[in-house]
Amino acid sequence: MNKKVMALAVAGAFVMPAAAFAQASNVQVFGTMYMEYSYSHQGAKVPAAVGGPSLGDLVNTDLLQTPGSEIGIKGEEALGGGNAVWFQCASTADIRGAGTGGGIQGFCGRNSAIGLKGSWGNAFAGNWDSPLKADIGAARIVSDTGIWGAGPMLFGNSSSFNDNGSSFAWSRRQNNSISYHSPVWSGFQVKAMFSTPSSTVGNTTNASGGKPRLYSLSARYSNGPLMLTAGYEQHTNFAPAGAASTAQTGGALAGVNTVYTGSDSAFQLGGTYQIGPVKAG
User: Fold this and answer.
1) How many Cβ atoms are within 10 Å of 161's Cβ, its own excluded?
2) Whose CA is closest to 87, among 124, 54, 45?
3) Are the C-beta atoms of residues 231 and 267 closer than 8 Å to each other?
């Protein structure tokens, strides 16, 4: 009997501090698991010339996908005066077993950052969804990724990108970025982001994209069943590797070489309206 009491006392000595730590701790483990089975009927190969001979059919395919699956940790520490410092590290969780490292691809490869927030807003740096992507997603009623995802079909691609990687992709989680999200004022919020050219800071030629930067802005208004968004994004100096310079041929700038910067811009307007279980976007 005494041995049982002693065992319970020892167990309690370990459990009570753990429980107290859990109550005081503000670090959380979170995750999302999603599985998708897709089948694609790809049809006939496109002839090299109109009216040319048939090239047969492409091979149909089926596959498992896990778009959006992630696992991560996040935490927050109050600093007083309504301010807090926070962090998040989210990683892809490939539950098919197809990824590297036992199914987890890129530690902190999804929305991950460290920041400071308060009544004035939220400022942070790391790897995060651009404001354009966030508000594209808010106004979309279909999946972003996967074989039928709006990201690859409508916006070039949807993934994490570094510096000037994949300039044609507009649904991007941007590495090396600094962001600010305002407070919500009567349903209205603005977001801003710019990226740093940290991996190419020593390069100045257009062969490496110069010093590429992303600038992204968005605004969102939510009021009951109505939500409206607007966004703008610019990819500056996103020149493809090895892009050639061109020479001016006339005027005062004759013979002066100019560099193609590969800069592009995107605009988007969106909205949704909810009526009971029905959502239109």
Assistant:
1) 21
2) 124
3) yes
